[in-house]
From TrEMBL, chain A:
Chain ranges of the Gfo/Idh/MocA-like oxidoreductase N-terminal domain: 2-120
Pfam families: GFO_IDH_MocA, GFO_IDH_MocA_C3
Designated name of the protein: Gfo/Idh/MocA family oxidoreductase
SUPFAM superfamilies in UniProt: Glyceraldehyde-3-phosphate dehydrogenase-like, C-terminal domain, NAD(P)-binding Rossmann-fold domains
InterPro entries: Gfo/Idh/MocA-like_OxRdtase_N, Gfo/Idh/MocA_Oxidoreductases, GFO_IDH_MocA-like_dom, NAD(P)-bd_dom_sf
Organism: Pedobacter chinensis
Domain GFO/IDH/MocA-like oxidoreductase: 128-251
Gene Ontology molecular-function annotations: nucleotide binding
Automatic annotation (TrEMBL), chain B:
Annotated protein name in UniProt: Uncharacterized protein
Length: 334, 294
């Protein structure tokens, strides 16, 4: 059994707790949160040991691994504290508020040889995994352009306020929504290294941006367009789409449906012209499903890495830091 | 329960395989009239139970049903609560406490939680009951013999091992609404075990059941084992696995399973409604004939 503790029982934290609670090889040994409403519930109904002080919890319950799902501005301090005590870390996204903090944590994880993972769950979505495989196989030739989009209905009217409306705490559409899409492009195309132009727009929020539009390029000179808007009520929930153009074909994919156009015949199970694959063909079975297979799959992967059954190569601190770097570039356009 | 239940995903742009189809559906079902027309097509095909989420749009549909008592005399709605995206999007923006504040009627923090945090723990059940009542408001005067808890909440509570809360839903629905509580889940075998342990006999459980094992957490075999060996009123949903299985083959598999009391499906067109219904009738009859012959 792996002993896991969690800090930050908000929306993502509680979701992780549920997935961890259903994991046959995990024992949830402690939860830390400042909200009494949440901790009282977890103590009373989930029989979990709850704490208000993170360090005290770590010293008391001595977990093998910790899930960090607090607002981004606290990531650095809490992750460092955990790793100093030789505890493996799964952190929510985005990784850190700035790249200096991230660098230090990457070095610390390497020095201490600790498993480190960040919650960019799109990498565990069947369609996006297949997009990556198709690109790496060279099926669509040389990739020369991407369009990466994400829309959803988070802020659809003014006068709402929480840490997500405070840019200094990691709020805003850039940190929350755009980070997912940037991370996906970094992974399936190549890391974005240059922002040619960008506009960060407030639509309903006073203090943060609700939309991010940008022209960018990657380290392999692929140009691309980013279009992200979390004030889009024509979407029922967050919806991410990537369009990838290559010299021999094109891919349009979201989390449910992958469309591939090939200029030429191919040896694999795709043929010349349009091909369509659905998530139903591309999803691996999970043991427990809350909100989608990918959320369980990323937790299973982390636990497997802690148990030395998987290599800890997906969503590492290093990769999440590459995404933080792009966020930093985009922030200059605020 | 009826053999076939009509679902509502198509009305609210829920399409598990295509965002494009979702968009087309939200255009098609922009008006309440379009929804009612499709419900009427389903009624003509013999489907008199509408299983729907507590989406704001259902308020208008309930009005139509209430205002035409003769036409909908034998019509039943199975509410499924809550409409989770409403809360999930709010939780991203406002946090958990903020979401409760926004959606629970009355001044919860002023009334329920007054006197400080010490009394808080006692009042979670009251809070859950208040939320159920808020979701049920729109169905006043409508026949709702079965009331469901949506899978996001059921499964969240399973993982959190908060069985008492699952049972609070069960008890409140029975007591206050004189209705049968049902649960939607993506983890049917786990849920069955929990309900059995808590003394629930013959539970109503709705879960994905299909030939390819899509969204059947654990394994398809584990699901089939429960169907074969346990007593329950099981509803199969996502029987076409989002379109991955041809309808005829999909329904043949479902009708061949033991213990499936109802099949839930949704469709936008009369043609699709009729063809799915006719497949279910065809394979049900076939099963019956085979059973009689042996």
């Amino acid at each position: 059994m792996i002993k896991v503790a969690l800090v930050g029982a908000g929306k993502m934290g509680v979701s992780h707790l549920s997935i961890l609670g259903a994991h046959p090889e995990v024992e949830v040994v402690g939860v830390c949160d400042t909200s009494k409403i949440v901790t009282n519930f977890l103590e009373r109904y989930s029989k979990l040991n709850c704490y208000a002080d993170f360090e005290k919890m770590l010293d008391r319950v001595k977990p093998d691994a910790v899930f960090v799902a607090v607002p981004t501005k606290f990531h650095y301090k809490l992750i460092k504290m955990a790793m100093d005590k030789n505890i493996h870390v799964f952190a929510e996204k985005p990784f850190c508020l700035n790249t200096t903090e991230g660098e230090e944590l990457i070095a610390l994880a390497a020095k201490k040889q600790l498993i480190n993972q960040v919650g960019y769950h799109n990498k565990f979505v069947g369609t996006f995994k297949e997009v990556k495989r198709i690109i790496k196989s060279g099926m669509i030739g040389n990739v020369y352009h991407f369009v990466a989009e994400s829309y959803g209905p988070v802020v659809t009217k003014s006068k709402q306020s929480s840490w997500r409306s405070k840019p200094e705490e990691g709020g805003g559409c850039l940190m929350d929504y755009a980070s997912h899409v940037i991370d996906l492009v970094n992974d399936i195309v190549s890391p974005i290294t240059s922002v040619k132009g960008a506009t960060l727009e407030s639509i309903y929020s006073n203090t943060v941006e609700d939309a991010v539009y940008s022209v960018m390029s990657t380290n392999s000179n692929v140009s691309g367009i980013l279009s992200v808007n979390w004030s889009e009520e024509t979407y029922r929930k967050m919806s991410t789409t990537v369009t990838i153009l290559g010299s021999k074909g094109k891919i349009i994919s979201d989390a449910n449906e992958l469309k591939l156009y090939l200029k030429d015949e191919n040896k694999e199970d795709y043929t010349k012209g349009w091909n369509v694959k659905y998530i139903t063909d591309l999803t691996d079975q999970v043991n427990f499903n809350l909100r989608g297979e990918e959320y369980s799959a990323q937790v299973d992967y982390f636990i497997d890495a802690v148990m030395k059954r998987k290599p800890n190569t997906i969503n590492t601190f290093q990769q999440a830091w590459e995404t933080d770097k792009v966020i930093e570039l985009l922030k200059q356009h605020r | 329960m009826d053999r076939i239940l009509f679902g509502d995903n198509q009305f609210f742009a829920v399409n598990h395989i295509s965002d494009e189809k979702s968009r087309a559906q939200s255009i098609q079902f922009k008006s309440d009239n379009a929804i009612i027309k499709t419900l009427d097509s389903a009624r003509e095909a013999g489907l008199n139970t509408f299983m729907c989420t507590t989406h704001d749009r259902i308020i208008g549909i309930c009005d139509v049903i209430r205002n035409n008592p003769e036409k909908y005399e034998h019509y039943k709605i199975y509410p499924c609560m809550p409409y989770a995206h409403k809360y999930a999007n709010a939780a991203t923006e406002l946090g958990i406490a903020g979401t409760i504040k926004q959606y629970v009627p009355g001044n919860v923090f002023g009334s329920l939680f007054k006197g400080g945090m010490a009394v808080l723990t006692k009042d979670y059940i009251s809070l859950i009951e208040l939320m159920i009542d808020a979701e049920m408001k729109m169905f006043k005067g409508i026949n709702t013999p079965v009331i469901f808890l949506q899978n996001v909440i059921t499964d969240l509570l399973i993982g959190l091992r908060a069985e008492e809360i699952l049972m609070a839903f069960y008890n409140h629905v029975k007591k206050k609404y004189n209705a049968e509580p049902g649960f939607i889940t993506m983890c049917m075998p786990k849920l069955y075990e929990i309900l059995e342990r808590n003394g629930v006999e013959n539970p109503i459980i709705c879960s994905s059941i299909n030939k390819v094992g899509f969204r059947m957490s654990g394994s398809k075999e584990a699901y089939e084992e429960v169907l074969r060996t346990k007593r329950g009123r099981f509803i199969a949903m996502q029987v076409l696995a989002g379109g991955a299985i041809p309808p005829e083959e999909a329904i043949e598999y479902i009708c061949g399973l033991p213990n499936i009391e109802s099949i839930l499906f949704g469709a936008s067109s009369q043609r699709n409604i009729e063809s799915t219904v006719s497949y279910i009738h065809k394979f049900d009859e076939l099963q019956l004939t085979t059973a009689l012959a042996s």
